[in-house]
UniProtKB/TrEMBL annotation:
Protein name as catalogued: Phosphate-specific transport system accessory protein PhoU
UniProt function note: Plays a role in the regulation of phosphate uptake.
Subunit structure: Homodimer.
Main location: cytoplasm
Domain PhoU: 27-113, 130-215
Species whose genome carries this gene: Zhongshania aliphaticivorans
GO cellular component terms, A-Z: cytoplasm
Source taxon at top rank: Bacteria
Source lineage: Bacteria, Pseudomonadati, Pseudomonadota, Gammaproteobacteria, Cellvibrionales
Amino acid sequence: MTEKSAHSHHISQQFNADLDDIKTRMLEMGGLVEKQVADATNAFMNLDTGLASDVKQGDNLVNSLEVAIDEECTIILARRHPAASDLRLVLSISKILSDLERMGDEASKVAESAIRLTELGGLPRSVLEIRHIGDHVSGMVRNALDAFARLDIDLALAVAEEDKAVDLEYGTAMRSLVTYMIEDPRTISSVLQVMWALRSLERVGDHARNIAEHVIYLVKGANVRHVDIDEMAATVQE
């Protein structure tokens, strides 16, 4: 039996059903978080306080799902004592849940910055950096979840590589905003909200990379946290 098929076959049909349930629920939670990130970006770009409030409310559901699904993982570990690939699957899901919950927190922070920026009267310039990075990290979240669903380690590696691009975009945007504040100190309060929103979006990208690393661990059994992209690629190609 191949590594991938080991994740979909087990002597106990009920165990299979339990594993399928936590996988499905985690992916549904991931879809919700992806939407939260996209909505938070749109709320910020359009200064839509109604949508921003919806994102903040939605974070409560994300938190509840994380607790409920993680509890299911704990029950499976206690009752089934899974081994090998099954154990890696449950542990990976538990870790991915944590990353998704933190993404939800970051989306909520972006929404909060949108509300505060609206109260400050917005910005006298377009902030396309938010749109670009927001769209970028939303795509990373989607691809990381797809990589998990398909056990696609090549796609997982691509997500990790994308995180480097986001980091570069983030650095460029922050330097531009610092220059803008220096040129017009009256905008400092507003620009700080943009900077905090960008920081939250950059962190979403970090968590998407974490999910990609969990996928590689799940399929290859190798811990690729805290290694550079070259080492990660070598692990994927083994």
